[in-house]
Amino acid sequence: MKTGHPAISRRRVLVLVGAGATALVAPTFAARLGRQDQAVSLRDFSLTARNYTFTPSRIEVSKDDRVRLTIEGADQVHSFAIDEYRIARRIAPGATTVIEFRAERAGSFTYYCNIAADPGCKAMRGTLVVSGK
Ligand SMILES: [Cu+2]
């Protein structure tokens, strides 16, 4: 005559509750990152465009990182461009411009101001280093 196995039943219930909690938490986490892959990390950088100079002039991330650049335009109109990532954004003075992208290509890439009308802008250069796997 079997009366059941209360200990095992209770354990099964706990496993189910655990799975339910994971199912509730996981989508929120993925949504916050903006994609399904939860292993990706978000890298935040603050830059300034001032006096024909980007500061910092070097940014290092790992391949597949999500990169967020918050760029402060401090004096005149500039831009921020990385050809290989098809990024070209106006950097307005007195404003903050946020650029987000996924570092899906490994290598060394130049970021620069593409305003050709101002000769001083030719000096505005920096390097994005994306280390591969
Ligand atoms: Cu410029």
List the uncertain runs: 1-31
Which small compounds were modeled alongside the protein? Answer: copper (II) ion
What's the SSE pattern?
HEEEEEEEEE
CATH class of the largest domain: Mainly Beta
Mean pLDDT: 82
Distance between the termini: 60 Å
Question: In which range does the helix fraction lie?
Answer: 10-25%
Main sheet characteristics: 4 strands, mixed
How do the strands line up in the largest sheet? 2-1-4-7
The total strand number stands at 9
Strand percentage, roughly? Answer: 35-45%
User: How would you classify the helix and strand content by structural class?
Assistant: alpha/beta
Number of domains: 2
How is this structure best described in words?
By secondary structure, this protein is α/β, with parallel strands linked by helices. It has 2 domains: 1-39, no CATH class; 42-131, Cupredoxins -  blue copper proteins (Immunoglobulin-like, Sandwich). The protein has 1 helix and 9 strands. It has one helix at 6-33, and strands spanning 42-50, 53-55, 58-62, 66-73, 78-82, 87-91, 96-102, 107-112, 125-131. The strands form 3 sheets. Strands 2-1-4-7 form a 4-stranded mixed β-sheet, with no helix packed on it. A hairpin with a 2-residue loop joins strand 1 and strand 2. The protein starts with 5 loop residues before the first helix and ends with a strand. The relative contact order is 0.18. Residues 1-31 have low confidence and may be disordered. The protein binds copper (II) ion (CU). Residues 78, 113, 115, 118, 121, 124 line the site of copper (II) ion.
